[in-house]
Amino acid sequence: MAGRLGLGSTTMIVTNTPAKDLAYTNFAYCSPSDLRNFSVPGSKLFLALVGDAFVLSLSAHESIPTGHIALNAIQRRHARVSTGDTMTVNRFVPPDDFNLALLTLELEFVRKGTNNEQVDAVLLDPTASEEIYQPGYDNRTEGNF
């Protein structure tokens, strides 16, 4: 990752997201006291480099004990961890003038029984553009959906 990391490596214990609806948010969750360790200076963001693999946005949840990080099933699979495992979690601070040159967007169904459903990339593009991209930026969607 090209960003700056926080004050050193933190080891946290992996747990499940605290509520089923939160599993669909793609946030990772930690205790309110741990959250401040992941603050991005000059912003309202809390970002973590999880398992030296990918960056996630963090949010606090009162039910998560200090020293734990709650990940949904897809996040745990990508990080190659299970509930109860320990993993390295670092604060991630994007570098100055951080510009995203390439975004690979992977979609997976999070509910059972929908694996055969098809998604049309052309129809998805306007929705993704509204949620992800800022006005004035060129974006193109290519897909193998």
UniProtKB/TrEMBL annotation:
<keyword id="KW-0067">ATP-binding</keyword>
<keyword id="KW-0963">Cytoplasm</keyword>
<dbReference type="GO" id="GO:0016887">
    <property type="term" value="F:ATP hydrolysis activity"/>
</dbReference>
<dbReference type="GO" id="GO:0035494">
    <property type="term" value="P:SNARE complex disassembly"/>
</dbReference>
<keyword id="KW-0460">Magnesium</keyword>
<dbReference type="InterPro" id="IPR003338">
    <property type="entry name" value="CDC4_N-term_subdom"/>
</dbReference>
<comment type="function">
    <text>Required for vesicle-mediated transport. Catalyzes the fusion of transport vesicles within the Golgi cisternae. Is also required for transport from the endoplasmic reticulum to the Golgi stack. Seems to function as a fusion protein required for the delivery of cargo proteins to all compartments of the Golgi stack independent of vesicle origin.</text>
</comment>
<dbReference type="InterPro" id="IPR009010">
    <property type="entry name" value="Asp_de-COase-like_dom_sf"/>
</dbReference>
<dbReference type="GO" id="GO:0043001">
    <property type="term" value="P:Golgi to plasma membrane protein transport"/>
</dbReference>
<keyword id="KW-0479">Metal-binding</keyword>
<keyword id="KW-0931">ER-Golgi transport</keyword>
<keyword id="KW-0653">Protein transport</keyword>
<keyword id="KW-0813">Transport</keyword>
<dbReference type="GO" id="GO:0006891">
    <property type="term" value="P:intra-Golgi vesicle-mediated transport"/>
</dbReference>
<dbReference type="GO" id="GO:0005524">
    <property type="term" value="F:ATP binding"/>
</dbReference>
<dbReference type="InterPro" id="IPR039812">
    <property type="entry name" value="Vesicle-fus_ATPase"/>
</dbReference>
<dbReference type="GO" id="GO:0005795">
    <property type="term" value="C:Golgi stack"/>
</dbReference>
<keyword id="KW-0547">Nucleotide-binding</keyword>
<dbReference type="GO" id="GO:0046872">
    <property type="term" value="F:metal ion binding"/>
</dbReference>
<protein>
    <recommendedName>
        <fullName>Vesicle-fusing ATPase</fullName>
        <ecNumber>3.6.4.6</ecNumber>
    </recommendedName>
</protein>
<keyword id="KW-0378">Hydrolase</keyword>
<feature type="domain" description="CDC48 N-terminal subdomain">
    <location>
        <begin position="11"/>
        <end position="95"/>
    </location>
</feature>
<comment type="similarity">
    <text>Belongs to the AAA ATPase family.</text>
</comment>
